[in-house]
Structure formats: C-alpha cells, structure tokens
Amino acid sequence: MLMSSVSIKDVAARAGVSPGTVSNVLNRPEKVAESTRVRVEKAIRELGFVRHGSASSLRAGHSRTIGLSVIDIGNPFFTDVAAGVEEGASERGYAVILGNSSGDRFKEERNLLVFAEQRVRGVLITPAGASLAKLDQLRERGISVVLVDHPAERPDQCSVAVNDVTGGSLAVSHLLDGGAERIAYVTGPLTVRQCLDRRIGAERALAAAGRDPGRALEEIATDAMNARAGQEAAEKMISQGRLPDAVFCANDLLALGVMRALLQAGVRVPEDVALIGYDDIDFASASAVSLSSVRQPTHRLGRVATELLLDECDNPESHAHRQIMFQPELVARESTR
Questions:
Q1: The HTH lacI-type domain covers which part of the protein (predicted)?
Q2: 3-class secondary structure for the chain?
Q3: Which pLDDT belongs to residue 17?
Q4: pLDDT tens digit string along 253-310?
C-alpha cells in the first residue's frame, strides 16, 4: 500500500479499532488506554501513515505544536528548561517550536508572530520585554499563554516561576555565615526581572544580619550574563585593587567567568574570595573549584509549565489560572567553604 493512499480508516482496520479511536491517538493520546494506543501506533508504523498536519490544523484552528520563547538558549538553564518542555509536550502528542529572543524585545515579538502564523496551540515564554498587550493579543486569537521563570503580573495569567528573592537571600546569607564583610553582586542588566529579584533578596539578607546594604553590597552590572562578562567584571575589580571578601553572581556562567579571572590572577577561591553562583548548571560541580550555587528545578520548571499550558488549552473557558512558585535550594561546594 502506498503511503499517500493510507487513511485513518486503513489504520483503524489494521488495529481493530474505530476511526475515532485512531483520531484520539493522534490528537488526544492521553485519553486512550495504553494497550489500545500501542496497537494503533504499531498499525501507523506498519502502514506508513502520515497525517496531513496543515489540513488538520486548518480544521481545528490550531496545530499540534506549542511555541517556546526563551531569553538565551546558549545558557544551560534554558537548555534544561527546554528539555523539560519537550518531554512534557511529546508525552501529550505535541511538538515544540523554539524561539530565542537573545533578550531583544523586537526579536521576541517576531517569535510571537511566527508562533501565531504557525497556528500553535499555546505559547510558553520567558519575557524579554514583550508587553502584556502582545500576550493578550495571542489569547484573543485562542492561543493560551504561560509565563516561564517569570511570576504572573495579573490574576488572569498562568505562570511557573522560582522565588528569586528567596534565592538571593539564601546566597548572601550563606556568604555572611562564612564571615564575609564586603560582598560584590555581579549581575546582568537589572531590567531582567531575575537579576533585580536576586539583588532584592541579597539586600534583605544583609538587612536581616544588621548590615547596611548600601555599604556591604557592591553592584557590578554587565551587559550580558555569560562567562566572558563575568571574567571582565572580575578583571576590572582586580585591576582597581578592590577585591571583596565574597562575590555573588546572578547566574553560574557569570560566576565561572569570575572564577577564571580570579584564579588566573593568583587569587585563591575561597581562601581569598568566596564565590557563589545561581542556577546550579552541570558545569558548576565540574569547575576547577567546584562552585557553590542556588539550585533551580529547571527540568521540572519546563515540564510543569507545559502541563499547565496544555491543561489551559483543553479548558479555554476556565478561569482557574494557576500561578506556581517553586522554592530554590542552596548547594554549598568548595568555592565557599
């Protein structure tokens, strides 16, 4: 039988089920008993059936895809989030279209336009600056939206995030417990919500310890949140002869760059300068001096966001918009001991 002539009825006949059951396996696999689904999928493989995706999406008004827009896919944090999204989507019979905004609002808006043109069922987004109006426009077109790693700003939004204020407080409290008096906060642009929230948490920890945040915390903002930016920030501190007792970095990539510069200059970590990052990416435990960090449940973040999005898609009239907030975890390693 030629692949182009295989129909849903042919698959149903081979599997011994109704065409409606085959349609459910293709569109709503979670609603079909596993034994039946396996039988239908086997028939699909044997017959070489390929459904006409564009035709089915025209009939339904959307496709079996979801869009994911992240700030920096080169950051392992977002790579892990994307892996969780793909895993959750695949289990529900969806594919993922990935858009990388590079922190650029206009690029992010182009991503959203492409998602709408591709008739995605829903959108997961870590906003780089898209206005609420842009996201509302998607919802008006029947495209559900869930914010990822960004708390909801209104009760009618869905979101999955991590409490970065708590995370910043954990990091600086840990440095204070180690005896640090002067702490530098190496961060990306404070227009990035996560960077700002982590600084707020750092200031709260200092205040709780009876320290003046304005005196005890020096902020060093960079244009990017990668290892090169961290290295340049540390080289600047070294050249000016104003090394702090400890450095808190807004993510692990910055921290790894800071560590490289310190070690190259003969500054010992943690004996001379203690160092802690944020995210707990895989590289953190494998660095020259294993890096202390604040762990985020990245894979779970992506998976739960996908489940929330697809539940929202299946219940578009529901007003029970959920906002899920995970708590971060301190992971102490050699760089602060």
A1: 6-60
A2: CCHHHCCHHHHHHHHCCCHHHHHHHHHCHHHCCHHHHHHHHHHHHHHCCCCCHHHHHHHHCCCCEEEEEECCCCCHHHHHHHHHHHHHHHHCCCEEEEEECCCCHHHHHHHHHHHHHCCCCEEEECCCCCCHHHHHHHHHCCCEEEEECCCCCCCCCEEEEECHHHHHHHHHHHHHHCCCCCEEEEECCCCCHHHHHHHHHHHHHHHHCCCCHHHHEEEEECCCCCHHHHHHHHHHHHHCCCCCCEEEECCHHHHHHHHHHHHHCCCCCCCCCEEECCECCHHHHHCCCCCEEEECCHHHHHHHHHHHHHHHHHCCCCCCCCEEEECCEEECCHHHC
A3: 94
A4: 999 999 999 999 999 999 999 999 999 999 999 999 999 999 999 999 999 999 999 9
